[in-house]
Write a structure and sequence with these properties.
Blueprint lengths: L35 E6 L8 E2 L7 E4 L8 E3 L2 E7 L4 E7 L3 E8 L6 E5 L5 E8 L9 E7 L5 E7 L10 E3 L6 E4 L6 E4 L4 E7 L2 E6 L2 E6 L2 E7 L11 E2 L7 E5 L5 E5 L5 E6 L1 E5 L4 E6 L2 E6 L2 E4 L8 E7 L2 E6 L2 E6 L16 E2 L1 E5 L5 E5 L2 E9 L7
Parallel strand pairs: 2-30
Antiparallel strand pairs: 1-7, 3-33, 4-5, 5-6, 6-7, 8-9, 9-10, 10-11, 12-13, 13-14, 15-16, 16-17, 17-18, 19-20, 20-21, 21-22, 23-24, 24-25, 25-26, 27-28, 28-29, 31-32, 32-33
């Protein structure tokens, strides 16, 4: 389900963003499930009614018509719009070109972006032939994220996608399985001795009686003894939102470790929220003390006051975006000081950064709209 928030700019800018809710509809008629090649460049949208972050002012914006949260790998973004009788999934690249589209029943909102062992990005979509809620007779199919070509599936799974990644479980919390991104077969399943926590770009994370372990292609990538960090096997769960290259776990109190998915290094022992600036590669974590920035030089605790209602929205281009109620605060990643993230004057709906690439291209949330800042530069506008 799409996530929408109400925000205003704290430094002289204010507006209200509408919350978006998704509702179920009747079961759709039969339709073709296979992706349809498109290759159409989306038109630039008029953003004059929006307050845009300074980082995207030179860039053309397009509106793919997405209602669900967006996922991406590299320069391709994936989400779906909600129609009267089905969902319309579409993959759009950084140029604002719709690469392919595929319909699914309205209840099948579970989808993920992962990668196989060769690094090929995959879009994994769920489907159900008999149940509009996508709770029974569920299957998963993987497509090449860039071309829409089917790579494997449909694979039978025990229930809807639970995440993180290609992890599925029955609605009654029965069997949980993680699929192998290479084949679509079961890579790991819940057993009497271990529990599947998540899948992170091909890395399967499980917790056993004494150990947190990650496997890749069936081989153990790394292990962490639970006793080393005072974690309990019953208490560990995975936060559903994925951040590139990171694993974020809940240690049964709303916060928990941040782990490098490749190496198993514990970067932060207890974080309630995390973000990653793809441009600078800085990792921002939020805990009881405030904000911490982690980079190749070490960690830096920022002098930023964080009352309980404050939410870490994003980190883009050396800036941190924080929401407090209906206000948005922007801080410098290096110093923690208030920064200018938007034009000094303006009115309209505030567009909040969401997912961005290392080149500064990505998605924005503006009310109930999702926009994509492309690599197309805004044409010069004659002075009035």
């Amino acid at each position: 389900m799409a996530r929408r928030r109400l925000v205003t700019i704290a430094v002289g800018l204010s507006t209200t963003l509408a919350l978006l809710g998704c509702t179920s509809t009747e079961a759709p008629p039969e339709f073709e499930r296979e992706p349809r090649q498109v290759g159409t460049e989306l038109d630039e949208v008029d953003a004059s009614d929006l307050q845009l972050p300074l980082i995207v002012e030179p860039l053309e914006l397009v509106e793919p018509g997405w209602d669900l949260d967006v996922k991406h790998h590299g320069d391709v973004f994936l989400s779906a719009g909600s129609g009267d009788d089905h969902l319309d999934f579409s993959a759009v690249d950084k140029n604002g070109t719709t690469l392919w589209q595929a319909p699914r029943p309205t209840g099948c909102t579970g989808f993920s972006v992962t990668a196989d062992s060769e690094g090929t990005p995959l879009a994994v979509l769920t489907d159900s032939a008999s149940d509009k809620t996508c709770d029974t007779e569920v299957t998963a199919t993987a497509y090449d994220l860039e071309t829409g070509e089917q790579r494997w599936g449909p694979s039978d799974v025990p229930g809807p996608m639970q995440g993180p990644g290609v992890v599925f479980s029955a609605a009654d919390q029965g069997e949980t399985v993680a699929l192998d991104p290479d084949t679509g077969g079961v890579a790991s399943a819940e057993s009497s001795t271990s529990r599947v926590l998540g899948e992170y770009q091909g890395t399967i994370l499980s917790v056993g009686q004494d150990t947190l372990s990650a496997s890749n292609g069936g081989d153990t990538a790394w292990e962490i003894p639970l006793a080393d960090h005072d974690w309990s096997v019953e208490g560990l769960t995975a936060f559903p939102e994925q951040v590139d290259g990171l694993i974020h776990l809940d240690a049964d109190d709303g916060s928990g470790p941040v782990i490098d998915a490749e190496t198993g290094d514990v970067l932060d022992e207890s974080a309630s929220e995390i973000a990653r600036d793809a441009n600078s590669e800085m990792i921002i974590t939020r805990d009881e003390q405030g904000l911490t920035v982690i980079d190749e030089t070490g960690t830096n605790e920022l002098p930023v006051s964080l009352p309980e209602p404050v939410v870490l929205e994003a980190a883009v281009g050396g800036l941190i975006y924080l929401r407090e109620g209906e206000s948005l605060r922007v801080h410098n990643t290096a110093t923690g000081s208030i920064a200018r993230g938007y034009p000094a004057e303006g009115s309209g709906i505030v567009a909040v950064p969401d997912l961005f690439t290392s080149q500064g291209l990505g998605t924005l949330r503006a009310g109930d709209r999702t926009l994509l800042a492309t690599d197309r530069v805004v044409k010069d506008v004659p002075e009035q």
